[in-house]
Amino acid sequence: MNSKHWTFFSNHAHVLICLVKDPEVKLRDVAQDVGITERAVQRIVAELEEAEVIKRHKVGRRNHYEIHLEQRLRHPLESHNTLESIINVIVD
């Protein structure tokens, strides 16, 4: 594996960042921004919803994503942090 191809954040984090920046973003646009397929984004959104990190609301024909920033990170090394503490560092 070429060391120039990895990133510090997972695709789950990248999708979440996109949803935080624009809670009404189209998943097609998230896929393009993250560089993965729309189907992969749909799977990640479903997993984030199942983990109660986000909640999807239908607004007309669009989805609105509510982010639960009070959720703690899942890995034991990071579980003392909330999503909000991490997102605030990344998102302007």
Structure description:
By secondary structure, the chain is α+β, with helices and mostly antiparallel strands. It has a single domain, classed as Arc Repressor Mutant, subunit A. Helices cover 43% and strands 13% of the residues. It is built from 4 helices and 2 strands, in the order αααββα. A two-stranded antiparallel sheet has the order 1-2. It is globular, with a radius of gyration of 13 Å.
Number of strands: 2
- The rounded Rg comes to 13 Å
* % residues in beta strands: 5-15%
Q: How is the main sheet built?
A: 2 strands, antiparallel
CATH superfamily: Winged helix-like DNA-binding domain superfamily/Winged helix DNA-binding domain
Question: Helical element count?
Answer: 4
User: Averaging pLDDT over every residue, what do you get?
Assistant: 94
CATH class call: Mainly Alpha
Tally of individual domains: 1
Residue runs with pLDDT of under 50 for 5 or more positions: none
Shape descriptor: globular
Strand and helix order: HHHEEH
Structural class: alpha+beta
How far from one another are the termini? 32 Å
- CATH fold name: Arc Repressor Mutant, subunit A
Q: Level of helix content?
A: 40-55%
User: Looking across the biggest beta sheet, what order are the strands in?
Assistant: 1-2
- CATH architecture identity: Orthogonal Bundle
Q: Which key phrases capture this entry?
A:
single chain; 92 residues; alpha+beta; Arc Repressor Mutant, subunit A; two-stranded antiparallel ribbon; globular
